[in-house]
Design a protein that fits this description.
about 775 residues; alpha/beta; 7-stranded parallel sheet; 6-stranded parallel sheet; 29 strands
């Protein structure tokens, strides 16, 4: 609805979330200016999710609604100039009268708007003949179609042969879109206009239903054959689908164990029950591969939902799921809000990935939303990964989730043979390149066999840091407290946080030195060196710099799968979920920095990435190999990852979590303070701490407070950042306490320029 808002009564779009008793008669209430939607925009379940998100993520109602509804359905206020009717009785000059008549005889709204660009328009506006009004407009205009039907009764009128063919067609088919009628009769739109003018036709503009691309079914579900182990897993989950019971499963399957085949069979059985399904994947890069697999089996029943789509594409996918013409929604984190009417199963693939946690308000975790939706629809939730999160595996061991296992690779293919190379030893032997001799020999052998190589390096750019030879200070971004990365293609230094770019400095900004040391290596340098080392091999680089376009992932991965490239080097986007039949060698060039990131999840994150990327090797012929390069060859996490030994890693990690009191043994609520004035940000964080202690004395909740202190990246995009983290148990009392503190600190005028946000169980505490 359109409502007057604030002291100036500015017109704003509002949404009714709940109704209450009308206020007392003496209370001043502003009027509703207009009702913009004939039917409710939010369904009952979506409305429930809005309140749940606000409660659990400390966000506003507006943030929650914007997350649930696609951008194309959100309205914006636009100003329009219209003629006042009836014409006011005011005196006009001859020129103004003529101009008024010109406006009044405009044949279309577009012609009217064009004629407003005239100096006399201001005069008519001042004299009240023109008026500015507000209107709500969708960000994505609904596409409309012109429908043709015969007049009733049909007038007895002489018709041309082309008009006769059109009338005959409509007598047979009833109503048809104009484009289709013209195509089938072999006529132009001029014939339609003539027939309409002669009263033969009735034409109506209607909103076009989203039309799915014609995706043929090219494979039969009978071709998806499950092993005995896979069949057992599917049957356990399917029982809950058929019984319409809420249940939570964790599928722990080694890499290459065929989890996707289980998903396909489960979803097929779910669709047989007349229900819909949601499948979440962690990266946009994975959607082309998995969507292709599902579309080959289910055709137009599949829709894709992720942030790289246009507003129009997202709105069409939303409408197709809402009206039931689509049955399967596949996408990244936001697809968990797909407007299903009858959810039968919700699957989260690679469930331990950090991308399932939103870093912007509302700061939800997709798995928490998935649990909520499965409770509403009384259906099972299936979490799956070769490297489950510590929290999920803990809940499975405790019986909150039912633990399912796939211990064997599909067709009993063995896991890759893994070699760990000590790069310190390589340096001692005089090898100063980023490639160990072991890796180079393995690459040469693999390429000579006509197979492919996948190399993981989680750093993009050419050199990862530029430092002064005199004072050893790195060249920092002027907007952030991080060193910039050198990109050779553009010959520029770039900040990977705020996007700032600048040429290489001639002198050091700290000491004035003129000599710089270029340190580290990124994917750009790897690509260049690989082309020199293996001139006959085509090298594909996959990182944020090469995948900017909407279809880049799909096109590049398809080219690699078609063997247009022999070597692929990339960041973590190539590490998980991808299936390339001819990859028999995987190289992990350097992940030591990730091991010591200073976050309690750094070991888990590194173990997962190494285990997953190693699992890309030898998925068809069983002759897979992997080489892990490190300067910490005896690190336990690397040893567990090399052995694909999740159980030992979990036992070691869960004990550390217990001793240090980290999730799953507690929840963490993190408060972030961001502003342009560092002193105000620090003082605001301190005041929040004082209010926390004060409020907790009343609530008597057991808490452990870390901070406040400057964040690991203390300055980002010209804003200073402080953090305060609280270990606690997530409860209604705790959430209410933080809501009260946030509300109280927002009332303090001296901190009005400081943004304060709360996050429940953030992925990164730095």
């Amino acid at each position: 609805m359109l409502v007057p808002f604030g002291r100036g009564n500015r017109e704003r779009v509002g949404m009714v979330l709940e109704c209450q008793e009308p206020p007392a008669a003496e209370t001043a209430v502003k009027p509703v200016l207009a009702v913009l939607d004939a039917l409710p925009v939010l369904q009952a379940e979506q409305l429930d999710l809005v309140f749940w998100l606000r409660e659990m993520t400390f966000c506003t109602y507006c943030d929650a609604i914007r997350t649930i509804l696609p951008a194309g359905m959100q309205l914006q206020i636009v100003q329009k100039t219209v003629l006042v009717q009836p014409k006011p009785n005011v005196r006009l000059s001859d020129e103004e009268e003529r101009y008024y008549q010109i406006l009044n005889t405009a044949s279309t709204p577009a012609a009217f708007q064009k004629r407003l660009h005239h100096p006399l328009a201001a005069n008519l506006l001042e004299k009240g003949l023109l008026q500015q009004v507000s209107a709500a407009k969708s960000r994505v205009q609904e596409s409309k179609v012109k429908l043709l039907s015969l007049a009733d009764p049909l007038p007895e009128r002489k018709m041309t042969p082309k008009q006769q063919s059109l009338v005959k067609l409509l007598q047979e088919c009833g109503t048809l879109p104009e484009k289709e009628a013209c195509r089938r009769c072999g006529i132009t739109k001029a014939v339609v206009q003539s027939a309409e003018k002669n009263g033969l036709l009735v034409c109506e503009m209607r909103v076009a239903e989203p039309i799915a691309e014609d995706v043929p079914v090219t494979e039969s579900l009978e071709q998806v054959v499950l092993t005995e182990e896979q069949e057992s897993v599917m049957e356990q989950v399917l029982q809950k689908v058929l019984a319409e019971e809420t249940a939570y499963f964790l599928l722990h399957g080694v890499t290459g164990s065929g989890k996707t085949r289980v998903f396909q069979k489960l979803i097929a059985e779910t669709l047989k029950q007349g229900k819909q399904a949601i499948l979440l994947v962690p990266e946009i890069a994975l959607t082309p591969q998995i969507v292709g697999q599902f579309q080959s089996l289910f055709g137009n029943a599949v829709v894709v939902m992720h942030s790289a789509l246009t507003d129009r594409q997202r709105q069409d996918a939303y409408q197709r799921m809402q009206n039931g013409t689509a049955k399967i929604a596949i996408g990244t984190r936001s697809a968990v809000f797909a407007p299903v009417q009858n959810l039968g199963i919700l699957i989260v693939d690679e469930e331990g990935e950090r991308t399932y946690k939103s870093e912007n308000a509302p700061r939800y975790h997709a798995i928490a939303v998935a649990r909520k939706r499965c409770q509403t629809h009384h259906c099972p939730l299936l979490l799956a990964s070769a490297t489950p999160s510590i929290e999920s595996y803990y809940y499975a061991k405790k019986g909150v989730y039912t633990l399912l296992k796939l211990k064997q690779r599909y067709r009993n293919m063995p896991l890759p043979e893994v070699t760990v190379v000590d790069m310190n030893r390589e340096r001692q032997l005089g090898n100063g390149t980023p490639f160990s001799n072991t890796l180079l020999d393995a690459m040469q052998e693999t390429l000579s066999q006509g197979k492919q190589v996948l190399l993981l390096l989680n750093r993009r750019g050419y050199h990862t840091m530029i430092s002064c030879c005199s004072c050893n200070e790195p060249v920092y971004c002027p907007n952030c407290s991080v060193p910039m990365t050198y990109h050779k293609v553009s010959d520029q230094l770039m900040c990977h946080y705020c996007g700032h770019m600048q040429p290489m400095p001639e002198t050091c900004p700290h000491c004035g030195g003129k000599q710089f040391r270029r340190m580290g290596f990124g994917t750009q340098q790897m690509e260049e060196q690989l082309q020199l080392l293996f001139p006959k091999a085509n090298v594909l680089r996959m990182d944020a710099d090469t995948t900017g376009s909407r279809y880049a992932y799909e096109e590049k991965f398809a080219a690699f799968r078609n063997k247009e490239y022999e070597i692929m080097v990339g960041t973590q986007m190539i590490g998980k979920g991808l299936d390339f039949p001819d990859v028999t060698l995987v190289g992990v060039l350097s992940l030591d920095q990730a091991l010591f990131a200073g976050d309690f999840r750094s070991y888990e994150r590194t173990f997962s990435l190494i285990t997953q990327v190693v699992g890309r090797s030898g998925r068809r012929d069983g002759n897979g190999k992997a080489v892990i390069q490190t300067i910490n060859p005896y690190n336990q996490t690397l040893e567990y990852a090399a052995d694909q030994d999740y159980k030992s890693f979990y036992n070691n990690e869960i004990e550390l979590r217990r001793l240090l009191i980290y999730p799953p043994y507690c929840d963490i609520i993190s408060a972030s303070f961001i502003g342009e004035n560092e002193n105000k940000v620090a003082m605001c964080a301190k005041k929040f701490f004082e209010l926390l202690i004060e409020e907790n004395e009343n609530c008597k909740q057991k808490i452990i407070v870390l901070g406040p202190s400057a964040a690991k990246i203390a300055k980002l995009n010209n804003c200073y950042r402080y953090r305060l983290s609280v270990k606690c148990k997530n409860s209604k009392n705790i959430r209410n306490m933080f809501n009260v503190i946030q509300k109280n600190i927002s009332k303090i005028k001296e901190y009005k320029d400081v943004s304060v946000s709360l996050d429940l169980n953030p992925y990164d505490l730095n």
